[in-house]
Q: What sequence folds into this?
């Protein structure tokens, strides 16, 4: 079941939660809505579910090309899993999962035996079959989450919508459930849209990531695309820690922090730019090797964890965070106060005041057209 | 048994507070009630039975318990609606309506009785129209029930309100997303969560109605066999210096209402066990 929303706007009083948002989710896809709180991601999810109505003038909400905007939540056949699970406290695990089947009108309600079998099967799927008689208050957070999922799946939803599914769980349980959800998705092949503010979760789990900010879509793409080809400064900033510099672009040459290098391809203009380099995208040398580099002094070293993390300061007083492998760290024998040369391996840059997403879209479409012209197999 | 009582708790002060609670309840509740029971024992068993089985007395029991039950039931239903509206919706004048709910608490009951009587009397503001329909309120059992409903309303509203406020609106949305109709959501999801509070509100409204005197005596007209409530008979006996007879009537009321409240408590525990079990 594919989902499409077109030009959706939603305001709460004077607060604009969603501003002209469009989105297409293919059938069977696993899509993450990623953004900070207040970005409108949960509102979008609730609009898809039918728990919230769009403002007048908004476009349609299509499920498999059928407009469901006027259809009530109970007839939309979506499975919705709430951030805080919203389990029925006075019902056992079994009764919670059976609820969606038991409230069906008599003529389409399965027999008691069929309901029992279906619920047992679902509880097995979420590995909760041995807890069928417990009450929600007797379960851990991760177990409640899985019951909530089984309950949503019981009505055989055409799409499954999850609001911050792992938000209230501790890091370890979260990782386990992530993997488990991925497997579940492969097993049951249902379209899943989930909301998260955790970029690791989105990048690890989703087929495609929708990055949202202040009620607008900043970028839609595969985890690879949004990470390696961010469409805007916001996306770069949101997808993990990054070093930012003020720089200048002049006829194909980029200047920042005392370093001059060729601008990355597709950046021909001139003017003030902001330069982004991720901590793991620096090559660190103790001697200049001819490549354009900037000089810095090591200020702090933290070698505990998967990488050695260094904090350096440039000649111009800018702080730079650098991650490197432990091997490389030992090879260089770095110490606090050591002078090093930094060579950026990968940089992202944005002209000041540029409209990130539009520019990105235009550039991408141009590239695709170019690629078609160049490709020998193309039309 | 001794072992259980001596079990130490990490929270200090159990012995002290339990001792205080027992002493306080004894002084305020148990001692006067015991005196009442003792007073009634000055009668012979036969005399006791004669008093409490007197047709005029049994008629008053029927009216007292019947009207109280009816009033408590009405309050449970409509108090629920009032609490629901106050918690779930925002409307101009909400604060005023909220304050209005407490009025029956604050008003001297005699004032309430006089006001209700003058409104519902055959020539009163409302009574005059009801009279045209052949419905008489003042000086009938219906009037007794009305006064009891008036004074019992705040109990149901105020017990339900905090529970309703705590009720997560997401569980209703969850029920709807699973295909439940509004009616199914209320019957299967909301009411079971509220059930203990509903019972408490009912019990309080019932107990209050049963003990009510001031407002009822004005609107009932106090006609023997028809509109006399049991508390009134007790007063009448006292005025005739028959305090043993008054105690006898009171003891029966006490026993009946205590067993009813106990029953409601047990029902409540039975219904709410699943939620508290850990």
A:
């Amino acid at each position: 079941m594919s989902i499409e929303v077109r030009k959706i706007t939603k305001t709460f009083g004077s607060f604009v939660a969603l501003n002209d948002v469009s989105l297409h989710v293919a059938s069977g896809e696993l899509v993450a809505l990623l953004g900070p709180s207040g970005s409108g991601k949960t509102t979008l999810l609730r609009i898809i579910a039918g728990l919230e109505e769009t403002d007048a003038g908004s476009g349609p909400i299509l499920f498999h090309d059928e407009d469901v905007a006027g259809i009530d939540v109970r007839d939309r056949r979506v499975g919705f899993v709430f951030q805080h699970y919203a389990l029925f406290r006075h019902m056992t695990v079994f009764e919670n999962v059976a609820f969606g089947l038991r409230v069906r009108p008599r003529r389409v309600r399965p027999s008691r035996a069929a309901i029992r079998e279906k619920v047992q099967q679902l509880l097995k799927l979420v590995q909760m079959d041995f807890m069928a008689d417990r009450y929600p208050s007797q379960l851990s957070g991760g177990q409640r989450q899985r019951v909530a999922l089984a309950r949503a799946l019981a009505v055989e939803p055409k799409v499954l919508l999850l609001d911050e599914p792992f938000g209230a769980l501790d890091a370890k349980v979260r990782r386990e459930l992530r993997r488990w959800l991925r497997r579940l998705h492969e097993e049951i092949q249902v379209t899943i849209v989930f909301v998260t503010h955790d970029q690791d979760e989105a990048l690890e789990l989703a087929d495609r990531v929708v990055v949202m900010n202040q009620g607008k879509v900043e970028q839609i793409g595969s985890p690879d695309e949004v990470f390696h080809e961010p469409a805007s400064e916001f996306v770069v900033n949101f997808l993990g820690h990054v070093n930012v510099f003020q720089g200048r672009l002049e006829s194909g040459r980029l200047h920042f922090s005392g370093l001059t290098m060729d601008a990355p391809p597709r950046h021909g203009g001139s003017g003030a730019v902001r330069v982004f380099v991720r901590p793991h995208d620096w090559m660190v040398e103790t001697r200049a090797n001819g490549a354009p580099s900037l000089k810095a002094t090591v200020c702090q070293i933290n070698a505990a964890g998967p990488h050695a993390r260094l904090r350096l300061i440039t000649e111009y007083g800018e702080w730079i965070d650098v991650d490197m492998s432990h091997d490389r760290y030992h090879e260089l024998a770095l110490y606090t106060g050591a002078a090093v040369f930094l060579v950026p391996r990968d940089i992202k840059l944005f002209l000041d005041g540029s409209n990130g997403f539009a520019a990105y879209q235009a550039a991408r479409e141009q590239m695709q057209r170019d690629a078609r012209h160049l490709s020998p197999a193309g039309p | 048994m001794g072992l259980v009582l001596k079990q130490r708790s990490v929270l200090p002060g159990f012995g002290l507070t339990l001792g205080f609670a027992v002493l306080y309840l004894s002084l305020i509740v148990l001692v006067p009630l015991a005196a009442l029971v003792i007073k009634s024992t000055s009668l012979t068993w036969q005399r006791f039975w004669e008093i409490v089985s007197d047709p005029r007395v049994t008629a008053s029991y029927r009216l007292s318990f019947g009207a109280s039950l009816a009033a408590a039931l009405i309050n449970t239903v409509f108090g629920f609606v009032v609490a629901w509206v106050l918690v779930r919706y925002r409307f101009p004048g909400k604060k005023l309506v909220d304050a209005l709910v407490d009025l029956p608490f604050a008003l001297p009951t005699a004032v309430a009785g006089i006001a209700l009587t003058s409104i519902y009397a055959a020539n009163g503001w409302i009574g005059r129209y009801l009279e045209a329909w052949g419905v008489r309120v003042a000086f009938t059992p219906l009037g007794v029930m009305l006064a009891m409903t008036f004074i019992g309303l705040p109990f149901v509203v105020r017990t339900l309100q905090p529970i309703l406020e705590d009720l997560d609106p997401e569980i209703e949305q969850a029920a709807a997303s699973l295909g439940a109709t509004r009616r199914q959501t209320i019957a299967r999801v909301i009411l079971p969560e509220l059930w203990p509070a509903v019972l408490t509100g009912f019990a309080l409204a019932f107990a209050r109605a049963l003990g009510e005197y001031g407002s009822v005596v004005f609107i009932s007209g106090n006609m023997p066999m028809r509109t006399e409530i049991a508390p009134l008979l007790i007063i009448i006996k006292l005025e005739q210096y028959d305090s043993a007879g008054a105690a006898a009537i009171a003891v029966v009321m006490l026993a009946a209402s205590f067993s009813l409240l106990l029953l409601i408590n047990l029902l409540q525990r039975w219904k709410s066990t699943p939620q508290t079990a850990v």
Summary: The radius of gyration of chain B is 23 Å. The mean pLDDT of chain B is 87. Residues 63-227 of chain B form a domain with the MetI-like fold fold (CATH 1.10.3720.10). DSSP finds 14 helices and no strands in chain B.
